[in-house]
Amino acid sequence: MTFSLIWMPDVLLKAGLKVALTDDWQDRGAGEMGAVQGILCHHTAGPRSGNMPTLGTLIKGRPDLPGPLSQLGLGRDGTYYVVAAGRANHAGKGAWEGVVNGNASFIGIEAENTGRAEDQPWPEVQMDAYRRGVAALLGHLGLSAVACAGHKEYALPRGRKPDPSFDMKAFREGVAALLGGVAPTPPLIPAIEPPSPGKQPRQTLRRGASGPLVSILQELLEATKDGQFGAKTEAKVRAFQRSRNVVPDGIVGPKTWRLLDGHTFAPHSDRPPQR
User: Fold this and answer.
1) CATH of 191-275, one of 3.40.50.720, 2.30.30.40, 3.40.50.2300, 1.10.101.10
2) Is 199 helix (H, G, I), strand (E, B) or coil?
3) Alpha-carbon distance 95 to 172, whole Å?
C-alpha cells in the first residue's frame, strides 16, 4: 500500500536539500496519516560516529517499539533519508498547540545526534538543512513555524523527553525567516555539468539513479558494477568525497565528477570542506 506522504522528497529537493530514498519507503508506515498538523523534531541519541548510523533502527524499530520510528532521518551532513510515507511511531503521549495524537498528526524528523555534550554544537550543515527542510514541509502544508515542536516540548509528562538538544525557540525563528523569504537560499547542485569543448556533459547522480552512467561511476569508484545507485554506491561516493576534503553528501555533481576525473586538490588540505 502506498501511503500519502509521497510528496515529501520532491518538496525537499525543490528546497535545494540532499535527499536519499530508502527501499520501499512509499509503502512503509504503521498506517495512514491523519490530517498533517505539524512537524515534531527529534535527535536519535545514537552512536557518535557515522553520518546516519541509526537509519536501520528508524526503519525496523526497536525491541520495545516497531518501526518506522520517523518519516525522515537527517544525517550529520544534511542529507534527508526518507524512511516512511505513512504513520510512524515517534511521538508518544503529549500535546502541542492543541494536538494530542502526535503520531497521526505530526511528521517526525529524527536527526543524527547523541544529545550529549561531546556532540555539541551540531554541525551547521545539519542545522541549516534541519531549518530548511522543516520550512519547506511547513510551506507545502500551509502551516506556520509554530506548527513545529521539539519532542521535549510535546512530550507529557513535562521532562519526559530531552530531544532535540538545541533551542527550539531560536530554531522556530530561523524557520519563520525562511517561510517569510528573508533568509538566503542555498546554492543548488546543477542537474548537469556545464558545457565543455569536446566533452559530453554528465548528469548529476544520486541514490536511486540507474543506467550506463551509474555503471561508469561504479567503475571509477571500483564498486560493484550493476548500474544501480544504491546504498553501497552512495557509501563509496561519500568515502571518496571525504578523501578529497569535500562535503560527503553522496551526490555526484560537477565538482565530484571533476575530482573523479583526476582534477583534484591535495586530499589533506588545511582548507575547510568546499560546498
Assistant:
1) 1.10.101.10
2) strand
3) 17
Give the three-class secondary structure for 226.
Answer: coil
The one-letter code for the residue type at 247 is V
**Spatial distance between the Cα atoms of 273 and 133, rounded to a whole number of angstroms:** 22
- Is pTM beyond 0.85? Reply is no
Q: What is the pLDDT of residues 144-199, one digit of tens each?
A: 999 999 999 999 999 999 999 999 999 999 999 999 988 776 667 788 988 888 78
Arch. (CATH architecture) of 4-179: 3-Layer(aba) Sandwich (3.40)
Packed helices 124-141 and 168-179: angle between N→C axes, nearest 10 degrees: 60
Pairing of strands 38-43, 65-66: unpaired
In terms of Cα–Cα distance, which of 26, 78, 29, 24 is closest to 52?
A: 78
Three-class SS state of 250: coil
Q: Please name which of 175, 177, 234, 239 lies closest in space to residue 209, comparing C-alpha atoms.
A: 234
Give the integer Cα–Cα distance in Å for 69 and 141.
Answer: 21
Going from N- to C-terminal start, the domains of the chain cover: 4-179, 191-275
> Terminus-to-terminus CA distance in the chain, angstroms?
38
